[in-house]
Q: What sequence folds into this?
């Protein structure tokens, strides 16, 4: 399994971000090939103090090759281009293989 994570910094207009993200961006994400699962949250918190991020998104793919193919696809290119329409605070993107927690 390979995980793709986007950490969004606080946008200039949080209400616009939430509305646009749910009604316009996520429907684009759902069309990406090879996407096994996805989830998001606007309730990012830390144990102490203010969280450095406003929202988080996680996607799961079978492996790094499936993730790369999804990002390079026409759908993936549309998703990437759409980020500028709502993420005015910027975003940090990370991805990594997930290790199983069993013995």
A:
């Amino acid at each position: 399994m390979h995980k793709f994570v986007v950490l969004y910094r606080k946008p200039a207009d949080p209400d616009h971000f939430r509305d646009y993200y749910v009604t316009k961006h996520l429907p684009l994400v759902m069309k990406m090939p090879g996407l096994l699962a996805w989830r998001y949250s606007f309730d990012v918190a830390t144990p102490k103090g203010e969280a450095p991020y406003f929202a988080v998104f996680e996607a799961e793919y079978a492996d790094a090759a499936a993730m790369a193919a999804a990002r390079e696809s026409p759908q993936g290119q549309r998703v990437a281009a759409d980020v500028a329409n709502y993420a005015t605070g910027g975003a940090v993107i990370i991805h990594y293989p997930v290790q199983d927690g069993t013995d």
The domain at 11-55+63-90 is CATH 3.30.70.100 (Alpha-Beta Plaits). The mean pLDDT is 95. The chain is about 35% helix and 25% strand.
